[in-house]
Amino acid sequence: MGNRPKGFTLVELLVVISIIGLLAALGIPAIKAGQDKAKQAACSSNLKQLGVALSSYLAENNGVFPGHHTMSGIIVWPHRLRPYLGNNHDLFWCPAEDRNTKWPVTYTSPTPHSNPQLASYGYYQGETPFRPTTRFSYGYNDWGTGPGGLGASVDDPNNPLPRIANIVKPSQMYAIGDTTSDGRWDTAIDPYNDTEAPRGRHGGGANMLCVDGHVENIKVENLRSRESQWASRWNRTGEP
Predict the structure, then answer these.
(1) For residue 138, how many other CB atoms are within 10 A of its CB?
(2) CB distance 75 to 103 below 8 Å
(3) pLDDT in tens, 180-216
(4) Which of 8, 43, 146, 187 sits at a 20 to 30 Å CA gap from 111?
(5) Residue burial 212-235, b: 16+ Cβ < 10 Å; e: rest
(6) Is residue 149 within 8 Å of residue 167, measured between CB atoms?
(7) Strand pairing partners for 195?
């Protein structure tokens, strides 16, 4: 009789399957960690480019910050910065956030703005205004008035927008960063408001653009801390 080809025994098959399962279990977390790092790096790159846009905006507007919204609740800061980014809306989206937070460029009509000021805020003709319910992944530091934040309402006569010269510690102060994307004032970041707080979507930390243009990844507990060294970073005076 000729030699019959020898197949795998059941035990051998089980051993091979176990080894494959073990390798998969070891490899999947490493792959996910690599993907998370790549998303964090892409987000950081986006924010650095937003920092360049902010610097360009300040240079062309006598050092006055863009502000966050109008008193009627129309969001303006992304629209004021996008011309300095070649109108690239993707740069306003953190890849670690879901796609529903991508810039929703929509139009209400092809006719000119009913509010002529919208064009001065950077809106396209007929573009649908951003409202506080607009989903977004980056927020602007408008959390306070007086010594806090970079300016909220752009048309509030009692609280004029600050200038870059008013920022005591630009390398310390937060300008724009990862926000809580829940459809409630996503375009703002506020350390002490749960719906507007920075979100730790990068290993428990949020990527934060500082006024001087550099980006840091900072743990959320520090961003929301009331300790002097952390609370002071939200304020233009450099003090808590």
Answers:
(1) 27
(2) no
(3) 999 999 999 999 999 999 999 999 999 999 999 999 9
(4) 187
(5) ebebbbbebeebbeeeeebbbbbb
(6) no
(7) none
CA distances from 192 to 77, 86, 195, 231 (A): 21, 34, 9, 10
Pairing of strands 174-178, 215-219: unpaired
**pLDDT tens digits for 72-130?**
999 999 999 999 999 999 999 999 999 999 998 888 765 555 567 788 899 988 889 99
Say how far residue 75 (Cα) sits from the centre of its chain.
Answer: 15
What type of residue sits at position 199?
R
The CA–CA distances, whole Å, from 184 to 139, 179, 180 equal 11, 10, 8
Distance in angstroms (rounded) separating the CA atoms of residues 146 and 1: 97
- Residue indicated by tokens 């304020």: 235
Domain boundaries, the chain: 15-234
Residues shown for the chain: 240
Q: How many CB atoms lie within 10 A of CB 28?
A: 10
Q: Which residue has the tokens 């926000």?
A: 179
Q: How many CB atoms lie within 10 A of CB 4?
A: 6
Three-class SS state of 211: coil
- CA-closest candidate to residue 221, choices 237, 207, 190, 200: 200
Residues with Cβ within 8 Å of residue 104, at least 6 apart in sequence? 128, 134, 135
CB 57, CB 84: distance < 8 Å: yes
Token pair listed for 27 = 């490899």
What pTM was computed for the model? 0.85
